[in-house]
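If it is no trouble, can you show me the amino acids of a protein and the tokens describing how it folds?
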Amino acid sequence: MDLELRHLKTIRTIADAGSLTKAATALGLPQPALSAQLKRIERALGGPLFDRGRHGVRLTPLGELVLDRARVLLPAVQELQEDAVRLARTREAGGGPARFRLGGTHGPLLGALVDRIATVFPGHHVSTATSWSEREITGAVREGRLDYALIGTCGQAPPPDAERLSWQQVGLDPVFVMLAEGHPLAGRTEVGLAELAGESWADVPGDGCFADCFTAACVRAGFRPVTVFETDTAACVHLVRVGRAVGLCRATFPPTPGLVTRPLSGTPLRWRHLIGWHPDAPAARTAQTVAAQARNAHAEAAAQNADYRRWLCAHPGFGPAPAAAVSPGAA
């Protein structure tokens, strides 16, 4: 039997899982089938790769050698495949983008960017793909399935694939709290996080660190959030409107009947809007223009929220970002 890349992936999965049972689940195989496959791999390599015991598996010296090589080879092959696909698509595009494929998390900023690109590049096809997962979006850009990623990160957290993609900041917003118009704190100009200690919360899901940062901010304020509903924006609005929860939202959240948005005292949470692309893809040729339009879209969203406009006057450093140089991993 000749050794194949899938065999190296199997070895890596078993080593990472620490047991054949867990590895079989991760690979979607019955355990007997995985055991039989491992035996064939071990015969091809000339010896056992794992010592099996009651508490799982442990790498043998031969297994450590093979795994070390696998951890080098597998990412290299993956990168080769991505570069080949991207080059092929570049040739198909004739060296320049004939279309704009945007990926983003759900929200009005993505729609505003589509509108601006359609205006600046008339006749070009514009499409979008949305996901709650920033990693899924940036992975699609890295692999050449999307041209641009419009995402957000909590505070100064780096974006996914920070070293492989070029990033530019679109804007920096505080996180506001969303209240029903009849909430006792709705008339305040700002709200202390500690004043909301007894509330349930509503927020959109994501795979970054925001949930952990929110919990940490609550702990600093003297409490732990008991209930957090993670759901889509429309459901968050409904939960706040009927008094089931208070919501967390970006400061650019558009005015909504029945709701008010208020800044949190001391700005304990902030959100960076970013746009990214692969530096070797056709999208890099129009990246500066697209990034500028994303900043314009963010500035327009900020201008439409009167509470945020007033807040920005007293808090320089927030709001739309100025134009900046772009480099791989920069944000």
About this structure: The longest strand covers residues 166-180.
